[in-house]
């Protein structure tokens, strides 16, 4: 394994609710030593930096600054959360035309200051925008990472844990594909404390198909429900981004369902979507194509087709 970076720097582009929930969580976690904030309205970024700096007597030492794209220099990770937010009644793909142009503007400006960062994309529709960022940047696919279905997977594990009344950290399972309506819950690979779900059901009560469908629906529609009640989602995606950041900066070689370019896995090519990936200091070192049931493979292929259609619609 590569040695950990001694100087850990992250730059966030976009200081809205997602960007700042992420920044606040990073400040509390304490494993980043320098944090740069960039926003199209500089005063907003300056105010956010001031507010975070007032936390410093209670957390690990950090250097928190706001500025222009010079903030990207020497950053191991540049995180893009900028873009139009999803509103009530909108799907993530409805944001496509608005946010693809924003990514095309941001990425070259980042690379002018830092030619080889790891780009972490969180703006929606994240799978499409990860692909756009990859093509615009010319960086290796290992270094352009989408937040993908890390959040969806968190929701999936949480809901299963609630059903069985166990710690969510002992539930293992994945949501793959699009971070959106075509996402795929891989029930065949779910386990609780290493016990396959089918066996666990026999011991602790069966999770019947109707209940599985309810969990799938709750995961798929979670963002819509939150947006309906409080206009936007930000805490959970903020922590999902922290988890990815920690895997990179600590070179943890963690398996996370981040978005990446798919080149043949499950018969899918030339789209970015989420599969279990090994994530460390060089970004994605391995994509894990685990065996799945045929209906799950077909659902994943359908998810890829949805994303390819979206990319075709904007000329990619």
From TrEMBL:
EC number(s) on file: 1.1.1.27
Class of enzymatic activity (EC top level): oxidoreductase
Subcellular location(s) per record: Cytoplasm
Domain Lactate/malate dehydrogenase C-terminal: 149-313
UniProt: substrate binding residues: 86, 92, 124-127, 152-155, 233
Positions annotated to bind beta-D-fructose 1,6-bisphosphate: 157, 172
Gene Ontology biological process terms from the UniProt entry: glycolytic process; lactate metabolic process
UniProt key word NAD: yes
Protein keywords: Allosteric enzyme, Cytoplasm, NAD, Oxidoreductase, Phosphoprotein
Keyword Lipoprotein in annotation: no
Modulation of this protein's activity: Allosterically activated by fructose 1,6-bisphosphate (FBP).
Listed InterPro entries: L-lactate/malate_DH (IPR001557), L-lactate_DH (IPR011304), L-lactate_DH_AS (IPR018177), Lactate/malate_DH_C (IPR022383), Lactate/malate_DH_N (IPR001236), Lactate_DH/Glyco_Ohase_4_C (IPR015955), NAD(P)-bd_dom_sf (IPR036291)
Cellular component, GO annotation: cytoplasm
Pathway per the UniProt entry: Fermentation; pyruvate fermentation to lactate; (S)-lactate from pyruvate: step 1/1
Catalytic activity reported: (S)-lactate + NAD(+) = pyruvate + NADH + H(+)
Residues reported in the UniProt entry to bind NAD(+): 14-19, 39, 44, 69, 83-84, 99, 122-124, 147
Entry similarity comment: Belongs to the LDH/MDH superfamily. LDH family.
Oligomeric form and interacting partners: Homotetramer.
Name this protein carries in UniProt: L-lactate dehydrogenase
């Amino acid at each position: 394994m590569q040695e950990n970076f001694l100087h850990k720097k992250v730059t966030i582009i976009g200081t809205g609710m997602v960007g700042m929930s992420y920044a606040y969580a990073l400040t509390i976690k304490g494993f980043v030593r320098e944090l740069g904030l960039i926003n199209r309205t500089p005063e907003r970024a300056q105010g956010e930096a001031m507010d975070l700096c007032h936390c410093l007597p209670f957390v690990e030492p950090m250097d928190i600054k706001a500025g222009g794209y010079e903030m990207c220099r020497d950053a191991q990770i540049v995180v893009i959360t900028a873009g139009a937010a999803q509103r009530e009644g909108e799907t993530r793909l409805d944001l496509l035309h608005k946010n693809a142009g924003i990514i095309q503007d941001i990425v070259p400006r980042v690379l002018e200051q830092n030619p080889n960062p790891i780009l972490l994309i969180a703006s929606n529709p994240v799978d499409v925008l990860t692909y756009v960022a990859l093509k615009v940047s010319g960086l290796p696919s290992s270094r352009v990472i989408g937040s993908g279905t890390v959040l969806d997977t968190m929701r999936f594990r949480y809901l299963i844990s609630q059903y069985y009344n166990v710690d969510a950290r002992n539930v293992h399972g994945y949501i793959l594909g699009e971070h959106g309506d075509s996402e795929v819950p891989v029930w065949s690979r779910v386990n609780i404390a290493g016990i396959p779900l089918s066996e666990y059901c026999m011991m602790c009560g069966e999770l019947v198909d109707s209940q599985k469908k309810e969990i799938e629906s709750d995961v798929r529609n979670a963002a819509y429900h939150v947006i309906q009640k409080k206009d936007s989602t930000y805490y959970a995606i903020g922590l999902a981004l922290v988890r990815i950041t920690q895997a990179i900066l600590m070179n943890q070689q963690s398996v996370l369902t981040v978005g990446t370019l798919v080149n043949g896995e499950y018969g899918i090519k030339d789209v970015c979507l989420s599969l279990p990936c090994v994530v460390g200091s060089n970004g994605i070192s391995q994509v894990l194509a685990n065996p799945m049931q045929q209906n799950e493979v077909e659902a994943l292929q359908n998810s890829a087709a949805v994303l390819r259609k979206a990319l075709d619609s904007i000329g990619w």
